[in-house]
Amino acid sequence: MRQTPAQAHYMRTMAALAASAGSAADAHGQTIGTAYELQLIQLHQHRIALKDFKSNERKAEAKRAMLPEYDAYLAGVFDTKPGTQDEVVATILIWAIDAGDYVRAMPLAEYALASGINPPDDYKRDMASVVAEEIADAVLVGRLTDQDAIAVTQRVLELTAEADMHDQIKAKLNKAAGWALLGKTNSQDIAMDAKGRTLQVCSAALPYLQRAMELDPARAGVKKDIERLEARLKK
Fold first, then answer.
1. In terms of DSSP H, where are the helices of the chain?
2. Taxonomically, which superkingdom (predicted)?
3. Which pTM was predicted?
């Protein structure tokens, strides 16, 4: 259900009030739901609706349609920056990645990581690990490509540089950064033709793949890529 301009203004105002006072009151002094509580209700309804879909692709399409309904609330959060745990921010961040909406996802990731927001309860990892792995997977399978893949992986590397996460996740993100520069995904022929890449691109991608190999030598899956790039650069 799309919000009217009046509803959007209301949600934004309520978000600011919720962040500063925790609740708001109507003209008669009756406590009414905060913007956060209202969005939690909407989030619950959307989660129920998503259960109707078996296909992950269909779920991603549905999430893409749902995301704009949270924009007014999130604008209020960005305005006030309460820095507190927020299930709506955490969930919409992950939904935006699932939906391939990185324009929405990246500001949410920056805010969530800066504020120490935890992922939804069904995730058993910290937010830095979730963001790093979800973005890496999007690149490696070809959902996130071209210049967007390069820009997003570089930003996520910056955001998670000091995070304590499993080496395998760090390796996957570095692999994704290298592949993004090379324009490679798992859907392409595994025998990447390094000759088709410029020396500048090969030189830029190689350190990320080498780092992935250092972090996860057994499963990084970049050994052949490194050999091809090194051979290309030697020539």
1. 5-21, 35-50, 56-66, 71-80, 87-98, 102-115, 127-140, 146-159, 167-182, 199-215, 223-234
2. Bacteria
3. 0.84
